[in-house]
């Protein structure tokens, strides 16, 4: 009896203490203190975008050295790796979003956040023009501001190759709105298939879900769709669920070219078990309202009825980036994205514009890993720039006073010596459905490939720990638990 009382007390004290610490951390986070105001003697640094590259940069930047302004059409950071989970309702929308002010309000010096879309950048005059394109606008909704430094990380848009009907009839999987639109359309197809009097042919059309693109986005969307079907739709739509068909279409001979052969084979066999059809060597030629036109491996053309098409055909440069590159035609010849040097300086500029992440064309894959490492690297560079600029001022003051500048000049030379960006690949991970994931990892220069349920647990824990904040981690973990207990939400909002 005494032992039980003792255990009870210890448990209670542990719960109260943990709760107290948790409460203290969250409350401290919720009420950021005073920030230094902008200082006219500091350089103006404009950060464009609030994605992986920009947020890694802002997280690591010492803002006391600069007057920082962030411009992005979204006032939040989106954790893209879990976007397909939002598309099928495994996670709630807000669980993978983090308002950018939750980051900027904790910085030493004030950071101005402007919800607007960059329209053009003038690399010669060093100005940026941006506009508020949201539903509600004030009297002023477009303006131009100057910058001393520009950190440009607007990401990329979905590549459609100008294929007819893609923009009009397919859903994308890049922005948070894409995931929401996909879920709405998917549930709409299922509910419409259940409408009384629907012919068998029409039911089969409405329930045919096609995913275009066998890159990681397409694979993850197919896997998540399969889970939704198996875990939830089979229970709530027993008369329709067996008719739902998922087809993945890929133009190349194989899916997931960036993964090792054994993981590609593992994914293909898992999809086979999950009854997801993979059509490789098959090119989408057109998407119509109710069908998709395919060029089959033998070059024959086939038109297949579809209810919903998800387009995950890769990346292309955003219009604002194309416009910026066109202003420096001699240095910016690569149509895929902005050309930068080893220090992420945009080629053709005087070193005041830096570009990172998916908006650049480099030897690196367009991944979050690359963008965030580039952001962190650039923040270190900016610390060095601030040091260099301060030394320059000290040298000029010393010269003015007739003092020796030798030691300062040595320090300046050291500060001028900038290390190039070095990418450290941590491996590739992807979810393939049925609580299985694949991972190509590298430990101490040794490659290691794994796939299955254990890798799925690793995938979850890796992404849970990479999430932006404690708030996101709690929300995502709670969503996973909620889905285990109650299943996914079927509401079509
Ligand atoms: P983004 O993160 O796309 O950020 C661009 C920012 O610019 C956004 O805030 C956007 O709102 C803003 N912006 C856009 N236009 C303008 C404008 N005109 N003016 C101002 N701001 C603008 N990578 C991985 O490494 N691992 C993964 O598991 C993974 N999973 C993914 C899953 C999905 C579904 C997708 C779509 C991508 C995934 N990626 C993954 C790739 C990864 O998301 C990108 O490589 C990464 O987002 C690139 O970061 P970025 O900062 O360059 O661009
Ligand atoms: P992707 O470029 O990797 O794949 C697009 C695929 O679509 C290509 O294989 C292409 O052949 C195919 N395609 C294009 N047009 C087609 C057509 N008309 N018909 C049939 N197939 C067509 O694009 P994705 O998957 O969106 O990924 C973009 C980037 O984001 C990649 O660098 C990827 O590594 C990264 N990413 C990483 C993830 C992860 O690590 N888990 C998850 C999602 C994206």
TrEMBL record:
SUPFAM superfamilies: FAD/NAD(P)-binding domain (SSF51905)
Annotated ranges, domain External alternative NADH-ubiquinone oxidoreductase-like C-terminal: 425-489
Pfam families: NDH2_C, Pyr_redox_2
Keyword Flavoprotein on entry: yes
Key words, A-Z: FAD, Flavoprotein, NAD, Oxidoreductase, Transit peptide
InterPro entries referenced in this protein's UniProt entry, alphabetically: FAD/NAD-bd_sf, FAD/NAD-binding_dom, NDH-2, NDH2-like_C
EC number, UniProt record: 1.6.5.9
GO molecular function annotations of the record: NADH dehydrogenase (quinone) (non-electrogenic) activity
GO cellular component, one term: mitochondrion
Catalytic activity: a quinone + NADH + H(+) = a quinol + NAD(+); a ubiquinone + NADH + H(+) = a ubiquinol + NAD(+)
Signal peptide coordinates: none
Residue ranges annotated for the FAD/NAD(P)-binding domain, each copy included: 44-375
Homology family: Belongs to the NADH dehydrogenase family.
Protein name: NADH:ubiquinone reductase (non-electrogenic)
Species: Multifurca ochricompacta
């Amino acid at each position: 009896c005494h032992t039980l009382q003792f255990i009870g007390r210890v448990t209670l004290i542990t719960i109260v203490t943990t709760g107290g610490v948790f409460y203290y951390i969250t409350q401290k986070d919720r009420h950021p203190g005073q920030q230094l105001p902008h200082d006219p003697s500091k350089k103006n640094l404009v950060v464009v975008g609030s994605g992986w590259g920009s947020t890694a940069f802002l997280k690591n930047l010492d803002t006391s050295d600069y007057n920082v302004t962030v411009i992005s059409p979204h006032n939040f950071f989106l954790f893209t790796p879990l976007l397909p989970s939002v598309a099928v309702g495994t996670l709630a929308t807000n669980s993978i979003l983090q308002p950018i002010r939750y980051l900027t309000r904790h910085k030493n010096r004030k950071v101005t956040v402007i919800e607007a879309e960059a329209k053009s950048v003038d690399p010669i005059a060093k100005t940026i023009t941006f506009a508020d394109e949201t539903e509600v606008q004030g009297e002023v909704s477009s303006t131009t501001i100057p910058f001393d430094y520009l950190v440009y990380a607007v990401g990329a848009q979905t590549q459609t190759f100008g294929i007819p009907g893609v923009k009009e009839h397919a859903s994308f999987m890049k922005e948070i709105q894409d995931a929401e639109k996909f879920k709405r359309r998917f549930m709409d197809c299922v509910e419409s298939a259940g409408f009384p009097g629907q012919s068998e042919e029409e039911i089969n059309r409405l329930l045919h879900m096609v995913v275009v693109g066998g890159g990681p986005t397409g694979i993850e969307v197919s896997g998540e769709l399969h889970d939704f079907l198996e875990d939830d739709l089979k229970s709530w739509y027993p008369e329709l669920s067996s008719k739902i068909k998922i087809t993945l279409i890929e133009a190349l001979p194989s899916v997931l070219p960036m993964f090792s052969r054994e993981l590609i084979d593992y994914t293909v066999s898992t999809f086979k078990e999950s009854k997801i059809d993979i059509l490789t060597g098959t090119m989408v030629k057109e998407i119509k309202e109710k069908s998709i036109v395919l060029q089959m491996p033998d070059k024959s053309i086939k038109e297949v009825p579809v209810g919903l098409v998800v387009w995950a055909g890769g990346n292309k440069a955003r219009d604002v980036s194309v416009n910026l590159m066109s202003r420096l035609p001699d240095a910016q010849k690569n149509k895929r994205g902005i050309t930068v040097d080893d220090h992420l300086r945009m080629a053709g500029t005087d070193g005041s514009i830096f570009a990172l992440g998916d908006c650049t064309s480099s030897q690196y894959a367009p991944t979050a890993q690359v963008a965030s490492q580039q952001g962190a690297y650039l923040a270190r560079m900016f610390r060095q720039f601030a040091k260099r600029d301060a030394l320059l001022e000290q040298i000029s003051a010393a010269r003015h006073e007739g003092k020796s500048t030798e030691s300062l000049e040595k320090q300046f030379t050291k500060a001028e010596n900038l290390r190039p960006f070095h990418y450290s690949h941590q491996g590739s991970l992807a979810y393939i459905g049925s609580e299985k994931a694949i991972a190509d990892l590298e430990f101490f220069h040794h490659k290691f490939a794994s796939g299955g349920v254990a890798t799925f647990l690793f995938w979850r824990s890796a992404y849970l720990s990479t999430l932006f904040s404690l708030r996101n981690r709690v929300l995502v973990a709670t969503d996973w638990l909620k889905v285990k207990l109650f299943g996914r939400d079927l509401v079509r909002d």
